[in-house]
Amino acid sequence: MTQTTVADPNARLPRQIPYIIGNEACERFSFYGMRNILVQFLVSSVILAYVPEAERQGVAKDVFHSFVIGVYFFPLLGGWLSDRYFGKYNTVLWFSLVYCAGHACLALFEGNRSGFYTGLFLIALGSGGIKPLVVSFCGDQFTTANKHLAKIVFDAFYWTINFGSFFASLLMPLFLRNFGPAVAFGIPGILMFIATLVFWLGRKQYVRVPPTRGEDPDSFFNVARTALTTQVAGQGRPGLLVAGAGVVLSAAMLLCWALHAWFGINLPFWPEDFHFVISACLALGALIAFGGIGVSMQLERARGRHPDAAVDGVRAVLRILIVFALTTPFWSLFDQKASTWVIQGKDMIVPHEAWWWPSWLVKEAGQMQALNPLLIMLLIPFNNLVLYPALRRIGWEPTALRRMGFGIAFAGIAWIIAGLIQLQIDSGAQTSLALQTWPYLLLTFGEVLVSATALEFAYSQATQSMKGVIMAFWYLTSTFGSLWVLLTNVAVRNEAVTARIAATGYSENAFLMFFFAVFAFAAALAFAAYARTYPMQDNYRTA
Questions:
Q1: pTM for the full model?
Q2: Domains (range + CATH), the chain
Q3: DSSP secondary structure string, 26-78?
Q4: In which band, very low, low, confident or very high, does the pLDDT at 4 lie, cut at 50, 70 and 90?
Q5: How far is the C-alpha of 183 from the C-alpha of 177, rounded, in Å?
């Protein structure tokens, strides 16, 4: 008979939580402080002086989204090192120091391309390395007895993230404008040092779940390997063939890139604009997709060699990865608010003459990004205290998957409005920057429904040995979201594509905005269809 641990109504929040929350607030200020001025800085800096002015915005977007891809790729490394070798605390601490070094490079090498790009790489490595671990480390501080408090903390966690992001988004464009890039990039570096210090101060109070060190014979990867390699009499191994095809396809993609980049060989079927970041992401996507399908085809072969609970846990992880994959279009829309929307805002009029406009503070388009964290801080308590209880009273339960599906759809609506704004700009009419408030509101509402919900969802669905890695896979969705953007940017450089866009009567910017909106709606429909069959799990740590 299975013993169930019930929630303790008198349970209190763990004392170590403030250290984690404080660390996250400072770290998010540092990250968004540099991220939200990156495109703005690159467009006008000597870093891209070699690029013709007409192409500079496009190249700046490519650099930005390549950086975002790195930020959300390196969680795989951080999650793996944490789960297998060092544990979450040690991994977070050491990657945080790398993070600080990256900020120092940005401040010191504002006019040196190699030094500046080195800084971006170190920030991507450090930020990405800790990204999946801080959330799951926070979850480790709870047991089944006080897990009902975890949702409050996860929401507070996300609220704090945006508290730091709000002030960074509002202030850093002003520091860049008035004091230059050294100061504007240096201040986030100081905040990252403070974040590291705050996290270190709580070291004696944390609950530290030890790493598996590869000693778990029933880990996800061991079960998957058994499923792929086990041969059954009279049957082939189709799953192994599918997984092997993924390996071959991934290797072929990287080979095509290497032939072009290293030897100057142009292959007719491989676009010249597929640089390393795009090629590596496509290769990784092929590995995950084909490997997951292959394991799923033969997973039952692992029963008997591994406990049923382990096999069922692998099945659950594969289902989670499908949920994650369906959210990637959302991130392709969301991350463009710091690139496409900032560039759109530069063609709009700041309504200084309006009595309600805070001219003393908001002076340029880049600062509109501050609306996103501000609205999040308002929407999270509104949703929890007003919206969700109201929906429950009318008999509709806002489950995690329902919230995430609607969040993707709201992102699509936001981009339709952004497209309509772009049409007005293209017509030559003076367009107030205040109109961007509406797409920011809708996109932010979608973000709260998707991202804030997914923090708890990802932790609760993952088995104990895979929490760090599954959180890394969640953050990897942003990598593939930015990959969609890079692939789109490559497509619009093709003369045939640009001719088709011109034939619609829309500008390139307007067309792409409507395209991404349709992309989001299609993803929302697919997400809703899959969510109907998804079996929810409960994998919190027992007391």
A1: 0.81
A2: 17-207+307-353+363-531 (1.20.1250.20), 219-229+238-306 (no CATH)
A3: HHHHHHHHHHTTHHHHHHHSGGGTTS-HHHHHHHHHHHHHHHHHHHHHTHHHH
A4: very low
A5: 10
